[in-house]
Every structure is written in structure tokens, then in C-alpha cells.
Design goal:
With 259 residues, the protein is of the alpha/beta class. The chain is built from 9 helices and 15 strands. Helices cover 36% and strands 24% of the residues. The chain is globular, with a radius of gyration of 19 Å.
Length: 259
Amino acid sequence: MSRDARWKTLLELLVERGRLDVEEAAADLAVSAATIRRDFDQLAEQQMLVRTRGGAVVHGVSYELPLRYKTARHASEKQRIAKAVAELVAPGEAVGLTGGTTTTEVARALAVRGDLGSGTPALTIVTNALNIANELAVRPQFKIVLTGGVARPQSYELVGPLADGVLSQITVDVAVLGVVAFDVTHGAAAHDEAEAAINRLLCERAERVIVAADSSKLGQRAFARICSAESVDTLVTDTAVAPEMVRRFEEAGVRVVTV
């Protein structure tokens, strides 16, 4: 296993468990304890974790794993979800994309759609995610509108009043939300309140709202609310979602698409 792969796995395990012991991590990754100690030390130097005697802990209860360290967990589900979301977009529409791993896959799915290979423009993409804008900027058939704002290194998303200023002046046909949690009662949510505020404004400027989320995020709560379940038109998720969960979302007026 490469160093980058080890670091990604270690950080995800740390987010899940809150604390990792050297011996435990070494067993999980099938490497030596000396290798894990060295990894922990180097990650601590980058302020990605806090070193403890015999292990490591996360920085705090609101710890959010930076996008660049997220592995392809639920990768196949996210790719299926992304393809299904992309198929809900019509040529010529204005599409708002928030940041996140699933919405990044949506951007890639849109980029390879055959009927979007040309147009004036084929799509207008509005996003506050630097990585999504970077990937799609090479597609001349897409008009890319990037909000201003201050970049969050965890998610590559631009937030703050500068982003507000752009979004308040436009409308989009569809907003595609990447979320960390989506619950019938508590709505869609993110870790960061500034990120949630921009996503909320994008929803308000959209004719329809799609949440793209794998089933592990459903029925969960997170710190910062984006919008209510009633504000969401469509949820696209994977087939592992519980039938009862589907029923509850549908009763709240959300169309559920499983792939």
C-alpha cells in the first residue's frame, strides 16, 4: 500500500472512530507499527490529527475530512448516482453544483454525456467548487460561472459574502446538492455553516432541487442545515436505502430515485 493510500485510510478510520492506537491501525492496514508511527507523526505535522501517547485523535468533535484525503468509499454507488443525476438535466439548462465527492462525479457524468458535446452553450454550470470548475473549464461547450468567495481547504468550496453577491443575481433550472446528511425531519445538512449558507442560497435560486447522496448519509444529522426535506424535489441514492426510509421521504413530497 502506498503512503498516500495509507494516509487516506488512516484519516477515514480516525473520523469514524475518533481515536486510533498504533497497534490497532497497523493491524487494520497490515503494515508495521513503525510505519504507522511515522505516518501519524507526518500527519500531525500537517495538522491533520493530534498525536497522543500510543496513537492519535481527531482535532475536535466537528472534524471534517478534507476532500483531497477522501478515498473512493462508496465509489461505485456515487458513480451510479452521478449518472442518474446527469440524466435528469436537459440540454441548455443552467445547473448549480455544490462541492463534494458525489457532485464532482455528477460534473464528470455531465462532461461525457454525448448529447452535451456541443451547444451555445450545451449547459451553464454555476458552482462554488474550485475543483469542479477546474475540471469543466476545459469543456468549451459548457459555460462555467464560478462564484467569488473565500476558499475552504476542506472542500474546495468558495463561501462568504462575495459568493452571496453572485448567487443573488442569477437563477438556475436545477441545483444539485452534495450533502453530509439528509433526514426527513432535519433536512439536508453540511458540516460547515458558511458552506450550508451558500448551498441554501443556491437552492433558493433554483427551479428544482436534487439531492445526490448515497444511502449512508440518509437518516443522518449534521451541524449546519441547508434546507428542509420539503424544499427538495428529488433524491437520487443507491439501492441499499431502506424501504421505510424511501416511504418517509416520499410522504414528505420528495421523489426518490434509487440506482
